[in-house]
Hints:
Elements lengths: L9 H14 L5 H13 L3 H4 L8 H15 L4 H5 L1 E4 L2 E4 L9 H17 L4 E5 L5 H9 L4 E6 L2 H13 L5 E4 L13 E6 L9 H4 L2 H4 L4 H4 L7 H9 L4 E10 L5 H10 L2 E8 L5 E8 L1
Parallel strand pairs: 3-4, 3-6, 4-5, 6-7
Antiparallel strand pairs: 1-2, 7-9, 8-9
Helix pairs in contact: 1-2, 2-4, 6-7
Amino acid sequence: MRAGAGEASARETARxxxxxxxxxxxxEPVASAEVLxxxxxxxxxxxxxxxxxxxxxxxxxxxxxxxxxxxxxxxVQRILGxxxxxxxxxxxxxETLIPRPDTESVVEAALGLIDSRGYPCVxxxxxxxxxxxxxxxxxxxxxxxxxxxxxxxxxxEAAHSNAHRNGTEVHFHRADVASGLELLEQKVDLxxxxxxxxxxxxxxxxxxxEVREWDPPVALYSGTDELAFFRRIFAETPxxxxxxxxxxxxxxxxxxxxxxxLGEKSGFVPLGVRNDLAGTPRxxxxxxx
Length: 289
C-alpha cells in the first residue's frame, strides 16, 4: 500500500523525526527515530525502508508523542518500557537501570567461568535491578542455581516479572548487599555484580542526560566515594563464599586497578580484567581465598 497525497510513508515519517532529533542535539537521531517507529509498527528496522504505507492517525499520534519525549532526552528504552539484553526482553520501571550492551561482556565473563568450574554451580547476583545478569545466566546456563538481590522492592517486582516472562527460575531476595542471606553461607560458587560506581560529585560531567536524569539514583550513585559499594562487597560477602569462589564485578572508567587492589587487600586474588566490545575495561575478575 502506497501513501496517498499528503500522507507520509513510514520511512519518510522516520526521516522527518530523525531531522527533528538531530536539530535538538539528540545523539544517534536516526537510530532513535527508526527504533521507536519499528517497535511501534512491530517490524524490524530494516523493514522500514520498504514500508511505503502511511501510519494510521493513532500511530502518528503515539509516534509524535514518543519523539517529543526523546527530544527531552528520555531514553528510547524508557519510552518503550522495555529493553533488549542478550536473548532477553526486559520490562523496566522507575527503580531499574536500563541494561546496556557493556554489561553483556560481564555476563560473558561469568559464563566462561561457570563453564570452567563445572557443576553444581550456585550464582549470586548482587544488585540485580531488572534481573538482566541473573536471568541471562539462568537462561544460558540452566543447570546453575541462580540467586539475585536488590535493596529495592520495586526493582525486584520488575525482576520477578522478567524472569517469568523469559521462562527462567531465579531466586530473588530483598537485601542490602549480603544482609539476610544466611541461607547462602559458604554456598556461592560465583558472585557477580554491577554495583553503583559513579560518585555524585563527578556525575554531572561524566554522564549523559539519558543516564543522569532518567536512571534511578539508588542504582547509579555510590555517594561521594566511587568505590563505596566495591568496599562493601569485599567486606560483607565473604561469609557467603566458598574457598575458590569466582567473582565478576562490572567497573567504570579508570577503576580496574583500584578495584583489584581493594579486593587483594580484603583477601581476594585478582585474576585480570575483561574488556567490553568497545575495548574498554569493563569487568574485574577475582577469586576468594
